[in-house]
Write a structure and sequence with these properties.
Strand content: 15-25%
CATH class: Alpha Beta
Largest sheet: 6 strands, mixed
Number of strands: 6
CATH architecture: 3-Layer(aba) Sandwich
Shape: globular
Helix content: 40-55%
Number of helices: 7
Radius of gyration: 18 Å
Length: 219
Amino acid sequence: MTISIRRLARFSTLGFSLFLMACAAGDPLDEELPPMGDFRLAHNIVVADNMQQVPPSRNATPDEWEEILTSEIDRRFSAYEGDRLYHIGIAVDGYSLAPPGIPIVLSPRSILVLSVNIWDDELGRKLHEEPEQIIVFEGASPETLLVGSGIARNRTEQMQILARNAARRVQLFMLENPEWFNISDAEAAEALNSVEALAEAAEEAAAIEEAADEAADGN
């Protein structure tokens, strides 16, 4: 599997727009958790043995990714007390943790790529045929827009933000399939909109920058 990441950030009016719009990723435990129907977390398994590091990047070991992702999945899903057990399996495919660079001119973004599987314990099988690949961006805050994530944040902070954003993205994937958890259509629609808005807000700066890069490449 080949993973590519844009590394050059352009300094233009976009920078000021991002400064106004971006926000730091908040703690998911401060969010109102959406209903998840029958869901109760059983096993939470994260493996990172076959991950790729996409340069430029700070180093992180498989054990470190497994620990921080397991912790954030537990923090987001362990409060649910539904009547049916489910397992969440995650494989870390690749990552890049932005190193210190030249502010504005060279300011790489951190990224995390995962393959996610959801299992129904009672049925004894996975609920979907192919793993769901999830791409997670670190997002930005005013301080990272000025000096870059690699300067404003240390390695552990970058990993935690990515892991929190990843847990939210995993939940978004689950809510897109409410029949798995016996969630009503009305609850599913409301929950999906809520989590999607939070996920997009947390990663908004990276998405806007990506779109600007593509537009500039087309000129």
